[in-house]
Q: What sequence folds into this?
């Protein structure tokens, strides 16, 4: 009798598993939506990532709640804002003992895996398999931490290696169970080091400049004056832009410090000698130009911007190629129809807007992130939504797609009914944002923000400065309306919404009283 019951239970579980979709969540690092041709065709063509938009849904208004690497990853695991999941900045350790989305999926019978960038200091928990980069990871011959705790070095380019490891796991997984796979790329994170084949393609291209590349920042807030994310002032020639120190060592205005020189040598020394010769030949063009022309001011910014975008987009091209490898694998193994695929980034990224690189600010360039989702049979191909969603929604959505109940402690909303067209909008009119980290890395002042469909209010609470933007008339957020008499009613209304969200999300420890 017991054997019969066991057989019935196994048959039931197998039937249940057959109905539960597999889920692959692909997250790149610092991949701004403008560097995906489904969003913007002016910079790069990304045909493989675009497949997810053509065969699924594109979110035009996806945002994060804290635009920085570690916190975004903790939010993915918990469905909570930073103050609740404990990772408010890149220096905080994620408590792996806490309940999380992968643990809930594991308990429901899913096989779970995470491969690639982790960046949460603790080891992963709730995963049947993991293989992660230590810290930020390396672009060339990356080190990977295995479940044994051993660290190995894998030969190759990081984006390819992470995909190789992913496909290897997909081949070896328990095929009797549905799976949830988190595939986390390092690219295109600073310092932007492309695969040689894409550097060959992109280093000769000239890209359009953003309208605000040369924006006048003189009359802007303290945050604009304190930040250290200026391409002209803060982007380093020998580390960020791979200029051989030998070309600029004797030029006072360009002379690199010891850290830049050490980085340049370290990254070049990791490259196999034959490739290294070609890398140096390409990057020597930059050094020769600096040595011969000695550009300064706007002229130097013009060159630095082009070199930055060339390297950044060449890194993106590798990501797109490897997304294609995953989608092709699903096709070849006849897994496409049973697998939901999500693609996003841990946040947006400044690609020269305001003359900047990096992220962190609550401005849309940084706060907004790409989000594409394909789920055959459930999502109508070519769908587009303008509903505002946030990365606190990802964990509830993955659970809901898997048929696993979403716990009440998660602060996000499931997007399942939105993407399957059973719901036109979400029951949420405003998004909450809180950035904390004030360190030498880019020196962005901590701030709160509330974003609606038209207006955004930002409060830099350590300096008691406010900003209000009309996103309809000023989508690039260049005109602060906080003191404009015509907008005082809007200011008060947005302050009230910010207070409501602080109460709703129970965030009262760091920012003090609003005034």
A:
């Amino acid at each position: 009798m017991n054997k019969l019951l066991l057989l019935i239970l196994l048959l039931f579980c197998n039937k249940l598993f057959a109905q539960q979709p597999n889920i692959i969540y692909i997250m790149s690092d610092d991949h701004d939506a403008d560097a995906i041709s489904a969003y913007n065709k002016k910079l790069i063509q990304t045909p493989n990532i675009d497949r997810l938009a053509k065969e699924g849904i594109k979110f035009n208004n996806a945002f994060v709640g804290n635009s920085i690497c570690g916190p975004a990853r903790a939010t993915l695991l918990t469905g909570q804002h930073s103050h609740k999941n404990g990772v408010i900045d890149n220096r905080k350790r994620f408590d792996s003992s806490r309940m999380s989305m992968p643990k809930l999926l594991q308990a429901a019978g899913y096989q779970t895996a995470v491969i690639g960038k982790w960046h949460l200091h603790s080891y992963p928990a709730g995963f049947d398999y993991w293989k992660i980069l230590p810290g930020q990871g390396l672009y060339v011959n990356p080190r990977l931490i295995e479940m044994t705790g051993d660290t190995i070095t894998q030969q190759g380019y990081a984006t390819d290696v992470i995909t190789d490891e992913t496909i290897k796991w997909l081949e070896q997984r328990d095929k009797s169970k549905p799976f949830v796979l988190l595939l986390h790329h390092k690219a295109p994170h600073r310092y932007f080091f492309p695969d040689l084949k894409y550097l060959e393609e992109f280093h000769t291209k000239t890209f359009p400049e953003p309208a605000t590349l040369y924006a006048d920042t003189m009359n802007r807030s303290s945050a604009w004056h304190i930040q250290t994310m200026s391409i002209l002032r803060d982007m380093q020639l020998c580390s960020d832009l791979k200029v051989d120190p030998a070309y600029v060592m004797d030029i006072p205005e360009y002379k690199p410090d010891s850290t830049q020189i050490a980085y340049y040598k370290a990254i070049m020394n990791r490259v196999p000698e034959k490739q290294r010769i070609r890398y140096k030949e390409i990057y020597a063009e930059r050094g020769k130009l600096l040595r011969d022309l000695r550009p300064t001011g706007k002229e130097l910014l013009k060159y630095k911007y082009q070199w930055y975008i060339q390297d950044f987009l060449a890194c993106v091209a590798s990501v797109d190629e490897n997304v294609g490898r995953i989608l092709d694998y699903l096709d070849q193994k006849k897994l496409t129809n049973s697998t939901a695929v999500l693609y996003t980034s841990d946040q947006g990224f400044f690609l020269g807007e305001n003359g900047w690189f990096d992220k962190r600010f609550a401005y849309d360039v940084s706060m907004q992130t790409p989000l594409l989702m394909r789920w055959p049979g459930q999502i109508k191909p070519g769908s587009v939504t303008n509903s505002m969603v946030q990365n606190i929604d990802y964990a509830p959505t993955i659970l809901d797609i898997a048929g696993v109940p979403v716990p009440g402690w998660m602060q996000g909303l499931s997007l399942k009914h939105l993407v399957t067209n059973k719901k036109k909008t979400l029951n949420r009119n405003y998004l909450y944002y809180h950035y904390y980290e004030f360190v030498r890395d880019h020196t962005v002042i901590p701030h709160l923000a509330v974003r609606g469909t038209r207006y955004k209010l930002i409060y830099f609470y350590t300096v008691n400065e406010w900003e209000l933007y009309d996103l309809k008339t000023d989508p690039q957020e260049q005109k602060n309306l906080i003191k404009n008499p015509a907008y005082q009613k809007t200011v008060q209304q947005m302050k009230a919404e910010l207070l409501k969200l602080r109460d709703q999300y129970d965030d009262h420890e760091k920012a003090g009283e609003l005034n």
